[in-house]
Specification:
Blueprint (H helix, E strand, L loop, with lengths): L1 H25 L5 H8 L3 H6 L5 H13 L3 H15 L6 H13 L19
Helix pairs in contact: 2-4
Pfam families: Tryp_alpha_amyl
Protein name: Non-specific lipid-transfer protein
Function: Plant non-specific lipid-transfer proteins transfer phospholipids as well as galactolipids across membranes. May play a role in wax or cutin deposition in the cell walls of expanding epidermal cells and certain secretory tissues.
């Protein structure tokens, strides 16, 4: 009887793992909510400069790791551009934003800029 219960529990755990795995694999696209959530710690740095918060680089690196396809990277680009649309910014702010990947030890194949054509991002 005990082995029957263990087998049922093991079967249930296997099904749960399969469902969780399928859910994670199905979530291939990076959403604008993901972009905003991961880059929120960078806002004060881009606005005012100063020391770069560790959680900002953690967010940048997380987003970089999640954007595995060209479509994901294009979506991230479009989300960033959409998020800053309507806000006033200076060349100072643009420079800080464009420099974020490098300061976090990453190299992007495009520049973070309002003039970036997100459809050309690979």
């Amino acid at each position: 009887m005990a082995s029957s219960g263990v087998l049922k529990l093991a079967s249930l755990m296997l099904v749960v793992c399969m469902v969780v795995s399928a859910t994670l694999q199905a979530r291939a696209a990076v959403t604008c909510g993901d972009v905003v959530r991961t880059l929120t710690p960078c806002i004060s740095y881009v606005q005012y400069g100063g020391p770069l918060p560790d959680n900002c680089c953690n967010g940048v690196k997380t987003l970089y790791g999640e954007a595995q396809t060209s479509a994901d990277r294009q979506n991230v680009c479009k989300c960033i551009k959409s998020a800053v649309n309507g806000f006033s910014y200076s060349n100072f702010n643009l420079g800080l934003a464009a420099g974020l990947p490098g300061k976090c030890g990453l190299h992007l194949p495009y520049t973070i800029s309002p003039s970036t054509d997100c459809n050309k991002v690979q």
